[in-house]
Amino acid sequence: MSMFIYIIVLIYIMTRTIALSEEAYKKLKELKNAVDMSYSDLILMLIKEYKEKRLHDLITICEKLKIGEENAKKIENIIGELREREWW
Q: Are 53 and 31 in contact (CB under 8 A)?
């Protein structure tokens, strides 16, 4: 008597279409080729870098105003919450 075990693996990758100007596409493509990443990985990296830069800039401003780093992060969280509100 033979017994067979079947394993089925389904991989479903969701894709989205976004509209870019020709200039934005060319620059994104150049950067993608330069860093040898997929478009998705590149965009995620750019978003992460943007958020880190914003926090760094906020911390710098808070230091100039004599506000501590902990308060700078609180301010960043408040700004994020305000941006997520739908009633603005």
A: no
Written as six digits, the tokens of 23 are 């200039």
Confidence of residue 4 (pLDDT cuts 50, 70, 90): low
Q: With contact defined as beta carbons under 8 Å apart, do 54 and 62 qualify?
A: no
Q: What is the mean pLDDT of residues 17-21?
A: 89
Domain chopping of the chain, boundaries: 38-84
Q: What is the DSSP string of 25-86?
A: HHHHHHHHHHHT--HHHHHHHHHHHHHHHHHHHHHHHHHHTT--HHHHHHHHHHHHHHHH-S
Alpha carbons 88 and 77: distance in angstroms, whole number: 17
**What CA–CA distances, in Å, run from 43 to 14, 19, 77?**
15, 14, 22
pTM of the model: 0.60
- Reading the block at residue 18, the tokens are 């976004």
